[in-house]
């Protein structure tokens, strides 16, 4: 992939993050402000992207929606990475029965219909914004666990690890000071690649009504609210849909080379 494409993807992501963080300053209206004179209205000077079915400014909610969508995706990935690193690290360092248990758990989670389980768990959680990342992350840790497990299983046999053990270093100290830094790069790559998937999952859950609940805006639940006004106010659906597509596409562009490089290092 050319450097120009990677640069463009990075700039796009930076722009999305910046405008989302600055939503209170950039939004022309309050987040939940209603304009009763313009319900499901097309774009105008007062509402550059029109309004939704309740008369709320689509541009303003799009900016705020980016904040919550990225927040949920980031927390989901952080939880999945932490859980995967903990389980994979325990399996790779301790081996034996622990390794078999973690491998069995990963196989079990990979064999069930993940999205269906997420739907049930999200419905039970009530759509609260802090519970959705736990639902998504709790079903997305398996790849990170496998990567960390394989790295730990190799690194624990290295000479410097044996030297640290002979010098009297405890298992926890060896893991924190020697093994985790070596596994940090593949963890970061797996986590970054998982951001796009977490965004899509959150958007899908919200679109089906099981994700973050209104009035808190996310790009997914904005799509849900725009279905009934798709013909009269198409911008209300097109805007969040394009933001989901562009952001996920940029994430995948940035992660593609890193994943390929990691695979090449493993095979070499």
Structure description:
This protein is mainly alpha-helical and 268 residues long. It has a domain at 74-214 and 256-267: MetI-like fold (Orthogonal Bundle), CATH 1.10.3720. The protein is built from 11 helices and no strands. It has helices at residues 3-21, 23-26, 58-94, 96-111, 114-125, 132-138, 142-155, 159-166, 171-207, 219-226, 235-267. Helix 3 runs antiparallel to helix 4 (96-111). The chain is elongated. The mean pLDDT is 85.
Task: Summarize this structure as a short list of keywords or feature phrases.
mainly alpha, MetI-like fold, elongated
Structural class: mainly alpha
Which CATH architecture of the domain at 74-214 and 256-267 is right? Orthogonal Bundle
Largest sheet: none
Low-confidence segments, ≥5 residues, pLDDT <50? none
CATH homology superfamily name of the domain at 74-214 and 256-267:
MetI-like
Return Rg in Å: 22 Å
Overall average residue pLDDT: 85
CATH class of the domain at 74-214 and 256-267 equals: Mainly Alpha
Q: Give me the CATH fold name of the domain at 74-214 and 256-267.
A: MetI-like fold
Q: How many strands in all?
A: 0
- Distance, first to last CA: 21 Å
- The dominant shape is elongated
Helix-strand pattern: HHHHHHHHHHH
How much of the sequence lies in strands comes to under 5%
**Helix tally?**
11
Helix content: over 70%
